[in-house]
Amino acid sequence: MQFNVLAVDPRQQVVALTLEAASETLAAEQARTRNLTVIDIKPTGVRLALPKRKTRFPATLFSMELLSLLEAGLNLVEALQTLAEKESGERREVLSTILAAIHRGEPFSQAVAALPQHFSPLYVASIKAAERTGNVAEALGRYIAYQEEIERVRKKIVSASIYPAILMLVGGLVLAFLMFYVVPRFARVYEDMAGTLPLFSKLLLAFGNFVAHNGVVLGAAFAGLIGGAAWAFSRPEFRSWLNTQLWRVPALGERMKVYQLARFYRTAAMLLRAGIPAVRALDMVRDLLAAHLRPQLAAAKKKIEQGVAMSAALGAAGLATPVAARMMIVGERSGDMGHMLAQIARFHDDEVARYVDWFTRAFEPILMAVLGVAIGGVVVLMYMPIFELAGSIR
User: Fold this and answer.
1) Which of 135, 269, 280, 292 is the most buried (most CB within 10 A)?
2) Distance between terminal CA atoms of the chain?
């Protein structure tokens, strides 16, 4: 079996060759006996295989592993080669591409910038700024800390939402089972008693009869509704419109703004601490804000270019909470705005987490009560004629 091998020779030049071997491991061994450092190995010929789903390269995990190897004393090329040797598939291809770019003389930031589908502009900017001082490990540490903080808040929100979501799903399924399966069967039993039933029982059983006679139409309408909702949520225009409507809800909109501002502060803090100028950093974090907040950021950026302090510019644009504005002033006096923005972001992240925790604690019992009343009401209305019949027999 033949393998196409991409490797680096002792003169640090990238070479491509074809080797005959029984397996990929033996082909790699042959290349090493020729004093070649293997970058990538692929079997020749056409192979029939199912298309593979493209997965995003785990940039955070890669950064953690690379930082550990750099702190252990390896240089950047040795660390990347070590990581490439242990990986396989698409991850190995990404690392091989980075290595090949570095061997061509490109800096690390340019190598990862050529893979925008795997490395964000924030990642590239942080690495590029660190290359000026030669401390890539520090930039990796900042990026890892940034991602850990983002993930911490996200996990709190997701974990707080799981139980209410399960409760709503199970309650909805039970209610649907009663309304679309049990009630139509009770309606057939009570057909001869229609004149003596209580009003609400009549309405419920009338709904049951309607479902029994129009089940196919209702099923098609329900499927169409689900399909239409899925299609609508897949459209960016609809998601933008829905997001705008949610922002208009007084209490919810305020919390959504605080959450977005926290992400905005945290990302700007990482860029400022990496040595990126404030105006450029604000340009890079523009897409983190909702569409209706971006013109406000543009106005603030223009004022900063004119020499206005960041605290005053962001405050005038409505992009700084009272707490954030005061803390920014302290950061401007100390000359460490990056650190202060990180502290502001953590303060607001904790505030959002407390609000989510409070809301779920209050929402869960209310949701249980609503579902209990709805399910219990349906059951009582179904059995009420039986109770009345039992009372008349006495």
Assistant:
1) 269
2) 91
pLDDT in tens, 103-150: 888 888 888 888 888 888 778 877 887 777 677 888 888 888 888 877
List pLDDT tens digits, range 265-282: 888 888 887 778 888 888
In order of 126, 141, 297, 348, the CA distances from 288 in angstroms are: 17, 22, 11, 16
Backbone angles phi, psi at 294, to 5 degrees: -65, -40
Contact 139, 274 (CB under 8 A): yes
17: exposed, middle or buried (Cβ count in 10 Å: 0-12, 13-18, 19+): middle
Instruction: Tell me the C-alpha distance between 237 and 235, whole Å.
Output: 5
Amino acid at 287: D
> Average pLDDT, stretch 233-253?
76
> Whole-angstrom Cα distance, residue 264 to residue 286?
8
C-alpha span between 69 and 77 (Å, rounded): 11
Alpha-carbon distance of 357 to 158, in angstroms, equals: 11
Is the whole-model pTM more than 0.70? no
Tell which CATH classification among 1.10.238.10, 3.40.50.720, 1.20.81.30, 1.10.10.10 matches the domain 146-394: 1.20.81.30
283: its two tokens: 């340009």
Contact criterion met (CB below 8 Å) for 205 and 185: no
- Rounded-to-integer distance, Cα 359 and Cα 108, Å: 45
**Owner of token pair 């550990």:** 68
Q: Which of 139, 178, 129, 83 is nearest to 376 (CA)?
A: 178
What number of CA atoms fall less than 13 Å from residue 246's CA on the CB side? 11
Sign of the torsion formed by the C-alpha atoms of 262, 267, 273 and 275: negative
H helices of the chain, where?
24-33, 59-71, 76-86, 89-103, 108-113, 121-131, 136-177, 183-189, 199-213, 215-234, 236-247, 250-273, 278-284, 294-305, 310-316, 322-334, 337-393
